Please model this.
Amino acid sequence: MSVGQLAVSFNAVLDAVHDKPFSSAMFDMALEHGVYPDLQKHGTGFLDLHDLSPGAALLAVSWWLAKVVPSQLAHVNPPRRLTIITGWGKSRMDWDTTDIKATIADFIRKLARPQLSQRNTGRLAIDARRLDARRLQSPFAQKK
Model:
């Protein structure tokens, strides 16, 4: 099975189970199989959600905030801003009513209450100075 075929399959499954306790293990499995190789193609201060379904995108953000961002915030000179690339939605089909940017913005506001900037249509910028790494709770943060 190709990575593209795996991505379609994992996107469908993660949409269905993103709110279940075992969803983080499913997302980890996708990462182990190289299904989402471009998540951090712009560096660790960026998360690129192109080609992810809404459920997969929620799990990717949760994973990133729990596994990647805390080490960034612990640096002597932590980043001032973290960026989540959602895309503009221009490749979305006419029948598709999902809005990944709105879904992710809502999730982040509920999770960590950082200041979000939405000036760029296809990105969410998080003021990292207002983000408390200790408050980043997710199924990923509970794993050893």
User: Anything to note?
Assistant: Residues 3-17 form the longest helix (15 residues). Residues 13 and 55 are 8 Å apart (CA to CA). Strands lie at 46-48, 81-85, 116-117, 123-127. The radius of gyration is 15 Å.
